[in-house]
Amino acid sequence: MKLAPLLLLFSLFASCGSIRQWRELQTEPMSIGEAYGGFVAIATARGGWRVDESAADRGNGIWESRWRKREMERNFPIRNRLRMEILLDEGSRAEGWWVRYVIEQEKVKDLRRHAQPREEDWSANGQDQEGEAILGERLLRRLAPKSVQIQERRDPKDRWSRNR
């Protein structure tokens, strides 16, 4: 009899938090500094993300960006934030490091607040999966370039083909 209320209570606590579906990749053998620096270089230079210094911690392998705002269809404001973690317990310099990342997304659903939304007006809106896929390709080329497969062209009509 006591189990049912506990299960209900735990399910309510689980529904209050945001659920993240992390994307992961394993780096080639390198130091933590190289993995962290490579991620930051791709995120800031190519992706245009800006670091949130209060949330980033190089020693623990955590990097978080500031919120980046834009507008969706029908003038709904939306904002994204990139978060990355290096799983220090699951890797080593010789084997490589597991890096996981997610682009969180929030939007203002009330159009009365779209011009100047307050912090409490923002609500979770899933993840930016397209942005995660693009970032993942860039990270893969930077942190694990040997795993990238380049397909050869086999079209005999192609004048740049190796088969000519």
Task: Report what the structure shows.
The protein is α+β, with helices and mostly antiparallel strands. The chain is 27% helix and 28% strand. It has one domain (21-144): Alpha-D-Glucose-1,6-Bisphosphate, Chain A, domain 4. The protein contains 3 helices and 6 strands, in the order H-E-H-E-E-E-E-E-H. A hairpin with a 3-residue loop joins strand 4 (77-92) and strand 5 (96-108). Helix 2 crosses helix 3. The longest helix is centred in the first third of the chain and has 15 residues, at 32-46. The chain is globular, with a radius of gyration of 21 Å.
CATH architecture: 2-Layer Sandwich
The count of β-strands is 6
Helix/strand/pairing class, anyone? Answer: alpha+beta
Radius of gyration (Å) = 21 Å
The CATH topology is given as Alpha-D-Glucose-1,6-Bisphosphate, Chain A, domain 4
- Overall pLDDT, averaged? 82
State the name of the first-level CATH class: Alpha Beta
Distance between the termini: 77 Å
Residue stretches low in confidence (pLDDT < 50, at least 5 long) are: 6-16
Strand proportion? 25-35%
Q: What level of helicity do the residues show?
A: 25-40%
Total helical elements: 3
The largest sheet, given as strand count, sense and whether it forms a barrel, is:
6 strands, antiparallel
SSE order in H/E notation? HEHEEEEEH
Number of domains: 1
Shape descriptor: globular
